[in-house]
Amino acid sequence: MIYLLRHGETVWNTLGRFQGQKDSPLTNYGIEQADLVAELLYQELSDDYRSFDFQVSPLGRTLETAGRLKRVLPLSIREDARLMEVTVGSWDGMTKFEIDTEFPGALDGSDAFDWYFRSPDGETFDHACDRAKAWISDVQRPTVALSHGLFGRIIRGVYAGLSEREMLELPVPQDGFYCLRDGDLNLIYRKTSAVQAAN
């Protein structure tokens, strides 16, 4: 079983900048989201939390979110670079407008879901999938994993056997998280609902 979380909202999230493997801090709202997720996770795990590994992307925004979680759940953090966000290379930290201006035509024919893999020096979709598969195959016990929006989609998609398009269109909430168990993806959202997101 894997509980897959995303970091809270960051300053660059609000500005439409794709962070990739660069960083910006959580906003006040992002801190509230992290605190909400911590409470939801506490309710979900109850006293069983000691049986879980806690694996975290080593980027600043995930470590900041992990710090908020540890205020509620005293889990030992283990950083794993395989959980880092997909990098778009020289486009990390840029908005789509800036990319279109500095790299004319590079985004032609792309949409809101597939433009990440148009970067001339970024990570490929296949490489990101291989990274997700390698991480999943190494999970040996119940695990809480704290990752990112795009890479979280890929982890869920690989886990559930989805197509590339299905993966990239998955939602990426910052005030809920997913439980990956027995091939299912279940969204744990707010204090009372668990909604099956995909099979």
What are the defining features of this structure?
199 residues, alpha/beta, seven-stranded mixed beta sheet, 7 helices, 36% helix
Strand content: 15-25%
- Describe the sheet with the most strands: 7 strands, mixed
Sum up the overall morphology in one term.
globular
Order of helices and strands: EHHEHEHHEHHEEE
Q: How many beta strands in the DSSP annotation? A: 7
Q: Quote the average pLDDT.
A: 91
State the name of the first-level CATH class. Answer: Alpha Beta
Short characterization:
The chain is built from seven helices and seven strands.
Description:
This protein is α/β, with parallel strands linked by helices and 199 residues long. It has a single domain, classed as 3-Layer(aba) Sandwich (Rossmann fold), CATH 3.40.50.1240. The protein contains 7 helices and 7 strands. It has helices at 11-15, 28-45, 60-70, 96-102, 125-138, 149-160, 164-168, and strands spanning 2-6, 53-56, 77-79, 143-147, 176-181, 184-189, 193-198. A 7-stranded mixed sheet has the order 3-2-4-1-5-6-7, with helices on both faces. β2, α3 (60-70) and β3 (77-79) form a beta-alpha-beta unit. α2 crosses α3 and α5 packs across α6 (149-160). The radius of gyration is 16 Å and the shape is globular. Mean pLDDT is 91; it is low at 191-199.
Task: List the topology elements.
Elements: E1 2-6, H1 11-15, H2 28-45, E2 53-56, H3 60-70, E3 77-79, H4 96-102, H5 125-138, E4 143-147, H6 149-160, H7 164-168, E5 176-181, E6 184-189, E7 193-198
Parallel strand pairs: 1-4, 2-3, 2-4
Antiparallel strand pairs: 1-5, 5-6, 6-7
Helix pairs in contact: 2-3, 5-6
